[in-house]
Amino acid sequence: MVFYFSGTGNSLWAARQVGEAFGERLISIADELRRPEATLAYPLRDDERVFFVFPVHSWGPAVLVTRFIARLRLDRYRDQPVYALCTCGDNCGYTDRIMHKALARRGIRLAQTYSLQMPNNYILMKGFGTDDPATEQAKLAAAPALIGDIIADIRDGRPTPHYTTGNKPWLKSRVVRPLFCRFVVGRNEFHATDACTSCGLCAKVCPVQTIALRDGRPAWGDACVQCTACIHRCPARAIEYGDIKQGQGRYVHP
């Protein structure tokens, strides 16, 4: 079973590689969170592996991942192996520790966390941005071999860590991330320019359905989780965020 969340496609690509390698079905975390049940239950086979595949947001799991885990129940769970695979532009901080604690609260043991470097896509704050074309292509070219190594380690039972913590992880994950979750998640500074064609794609790809079309133009509510799906996927590049202008890059996994 592969639980995944993806905004611009990096984690979806990784989830597909894992699902195909181990014969496990993919389950969209965003879709499942729309279910009305307070507890989201999934039965496990005795021989089943469980994966969580998601992007790193502000040096921790994407917000929807921890929300999902808080409602998760694995029926017939008997210590089947559970893995986390996070995609990141550079490094992950203490994402592994955050996942370990979140799952432990649900009585689930996390066997291993892996990280997979993919092209950067967070552009909603100054100092961040997409990679230059050469770096983007280099990361995409390296990704199949990297995830192949991770898959081989899991299949062969080798406890080889493929995880990049980075510098100052305590500051990033224990200080910056809580501030991000409290003051940035939910903030709405998106707006559409006159280039908007009213195609509605932004509303369709929004995982929390906080975008609605009003008189043919998108309007954002207060449930944004900063996944950047809308701004990157807009075919007309008509979406801006605060003073982030068209000169800032856009990225969608090919």
Describe the 3D structure.
The longest helix has 24 residues. This protein has 254 residues and is an alpha/beta fold. The mean pLDDT is 94. The chain is globular and about 55 Å long. The strands form 4 sheets. A 5-stranded parallel sheet has the order 2-1-4-6-7, with helices on both faces. The chain is built from 8 helices and 11 strands.
Task: Name the features.
254 residues, alpha/beta, five-stranded parallel beta sheet, two-stranded parallel ribbon
Summarize the structure.
It is built from 8 helices and 11 strands. By secondary structure, it is an alpha/beta fold.
Largest sheet: 5 strands, parallel
How many DSSP-defined strands?
A: 11
N-to-C CA distance? 24 Å
Radius of gyration: 18 Å
> Globular, elongated, flat, extended or rod-shaped: what is the shape?
globular
Beta-strand proportion:
15-25%
| Average residue-wise pLDDT | 94
* Low-pLDDT segments: none
The number of helical elements comes to 8
Helix-and-strand structural type: alpha/beta
Going across the major beta sheet, what is the strand order? Answer: 2-1-4-6-7
Q: Secondary-structure element order, as H and E?
A: EHEHEEHEEHEHHEHEEHE
Percent of residues in helices comes to: 25-40%
